[in-house]
Structure formats: C-alpha cells, structure tokens
Design goal:
The structure holds 2 protein chains of 2 kinds.
Chain A (H helix, E strand, L loop, with lengths): L1 H12 L7 H17 L3 H22 L6 H5 L2 H6 L5 H30 L6 H26 L7 H27 L5 H30 L1
Helix pairs in contact in A: 1-6, 2-3, 2-6, 3-6, 3-7, 3-8, 6-7, 6-9, 7-8, 7-9, 8-9
Chain B lengths: L2 E10 L2 E11 L4 E5 L6 H8 L7 E5 L5 E4 L11 H11 L6 H6 L15 H15 L3 E5 L7 H16 L3 E5 L9 E4 L19
Parallel strand pairs in B: 3-7, 3-8, 5-6, 6-7
Antiparallel strand pairs in B: 1-2, 1-4
Helix pairs in contact in B: 2-4, 4-5
Classes of the chains: A mainly alpha, B alpha/beta.
Chain lengths: 218, 204
Amino acid sequence: MRALFVRDLRLALRAGGGFGLGLAFFLIVVVLVPFSVGPEPALLARIAPGVLWLGALLSCLLSLDRLLAVDFEDGALDLLATSPLPLEGIVVVKAAAHWVTTGLPLVLVAPVLGVLLNLPAPGFGVLVLSLGIGTPALSTIGAFGAALTVGIKRGGLLLSLLVLPLYVPTLIFGAEAARRAVLGLDVSTPLMLLGGITAGVLAFMPFAAGVVLRVNLR
Amino acid sequence: MELTVTDLAVGRGGVPVLAGVSFAVAPGAALVLRGPNGAGKTTLLRTVAGLQEPMAGTVHGAEDRVAYAAHADGIKGALSVAENLAFWASVFGQSDIEAALRAFDLEALRNRRAAALSAGQKRRLGLARMRVTGRAIWVLDEPTVSLDAASVALFAEAVRAHLAAGGMALIATHIDLGLDAQVLDVAPFRAPAQAMAAADEVFL
C-alpha cells in the first residue's frame, strides 16, 4: 500500500502529472471573482467564505477523472486487481494521494487567497480548519465517482454529474462554518457535522468504490 | 498445488464465449492456449486470473497465486525502468529486482524513463514484472507481441526457469516458444450463441 502511495505522489509531482492544476484553477477562480462581482470590500467580505469553498470544491473536481482512468488505460489497474492489495485499499490509497496532491495544497493556499477576497480576520482559522476537515471527503467521494466511471471514455462529465450532488452536504457545512466564523458566531455545530460527514464518507465510500470497481473491471 | 479448471464457461459482456473448458496444470508444467482471434483466450485468462467471474464451472487453486500479464503492461512512462519494477515488487511484497532485470536484459536501461523505451523494451519490462511478483502461476496473454527473436528466447528461458522452480504457466500465444508444454486449442469449446441475460441482473 505504501508503495502505491509513494508511486502516485511521484507520478503526480513529475512532469505531466497534473500537480498544480487544481491549485492554478483555484487561484484563477478567486482572482476573477472580484472582477465579476465588483470591487466593493463589504460585498467581497460577505461572499468570501462561500467563494473560497466553492473554488476549492471545483478545483478538487477538476483532477478526479484521471484518478483511476490513467491506471485503467495503461492496464495497471488490472494488474493491481490481481495483486495482494484489496481493491478497497487501492481506492483508499489513491484517494489519499489525490488529497495530498490536490486537497492539501488547496487548504494551505486558501488563507492567502482569502486576503484577495477581503476575508475578515476571524474567518481565516476556521476556513482552513473547515477545508482541512472537508477536503478528505471530497477526494474520497471523488474516488468513488472515478470508480463508477472508470471504463467510460471521456467519463469526466458523467463523473461530475454523479459526484456534485454528493458534495453538497460538505459544501453547505464547510461554507457555513467559515461564514459563521466571519460573523463571530459559534462554529462548533457545522464543524462537527462536517467532521461527521467526512468520517462517514471515509468509512463507507471505499467499500462502495471497491464493489463498483470490481464490476467495472470485468 | 495444481491449477484445476473444471467445466468452465466464460463470457464477455454477458455473452458466453467458451463453455465446458476443463484442464489441469501441475506444478512445473505449462499450458499453451491456441485459437483464432476472438476465440476467447483472453476472456479465459482473465477468468482464471480472477478479474471476472466464471459463468459456470470452477477454477481451483488460482486464488492469490496468479501473476497476470495482459496486452497492456501497466508501465508508467514518468518512472524509470527500475522504479517501475521496484514498485511492482513491493506491491507483491518482494524487494529484489536485479534478477528480473538481468533475465530480460534490462540492466543497461535501468535508469531510462519508461516513456523513452521502444515497444519491445516496454514488453520486456512488462514480462520482467512477472519475475518480481513471486507468484506461482503465470498467466500470460500473448506475451511475445512486439518482441524480437532474441527477446523471445530470453522470455522462453525465463518461463523455463520458472517452471523448473516448480511454477506453472498458462500462456496464450500464436508462436512456438519451444517449451515442453501441453497445448489446448480453445476453438472446439466455443459456446453456442445465446444471450445470457442473467449475468448482470444484480445491477439492473
């Protein structure tokens, strides 16, 4: 399992691996928002938590269609399926590698981009915390979506349609936590619900993904 | 423990391809599958490898003992030859890749990026992977595609060494590898054309 994780990180970081794609997209979205809604600081401060969360979510979605498709196309997935690793474990490892190369950089860069959107000071800590709790769920749900669409050529559109509804609870509670922090309200309830969703997703999704992957490989 | 296939029926996309296939491969023996294109050799091998369920019949003695090599080698172009091989070795809980590099004459290429290999060199890397798995049953689907004569000889030598060490091999090929192996022509086992609607029932 560790070998697969190391290999996926290495592949992502080498040329053509797509590392930084999500990051660049996130940056573009956040930079363009003030141009589209106008430079009014009060308005930006109000929408900043929501925009940052939405940007992070869409950036995460961007790289999902390659999560399993690359290994499927070059035959590595078939070979992995006949290896001692369980398919559920393969999905967990690939989701973890996706999070480290996509989710984690988004979490780390979010406060910097928060400055661009005039995010009020009390919001920064909770924004990073909520993204840190929420993005593992995004990667894991995404891995499930990738498993569902693995045999399909150009499955990216179908993948987005399948995955986006599943992202909604995470988006609602994540953005709500950041919004409440900005307003100086108590954030524990949305954060706990966000954590609950992530925990549930981490426990359940790998098994669902393993089952659909087994069907898709036949 | 020998590999036993009894009255096996296999299908592709719910349509039966082969039916009533039975054979046994003892340790140290190889079985060569022959048959025209589309006869169902690949489907049979995928079933033995456990990638798909048999439609009927049983495969005995293959569980967690199969190393499978398909048409695609699963090589990552961004990694070097040695990195590719070391990855598969550690997935299968092994660590030594030197013997495999030597057996397929890849030592000079060990630090080359796999994307820069020729088709035949890639194939050799794909076959070298079999050696680092440490698995007893090699299931090989047309292993000699794009190999030159010298490489085919290297491959036949590797299979012979594997058999001599008590391994087994199931090979679908159109060329003669010079192996002392039983030959099974799958053409007579072609399944009668009929729709097997039940195959995907669970998912409808």
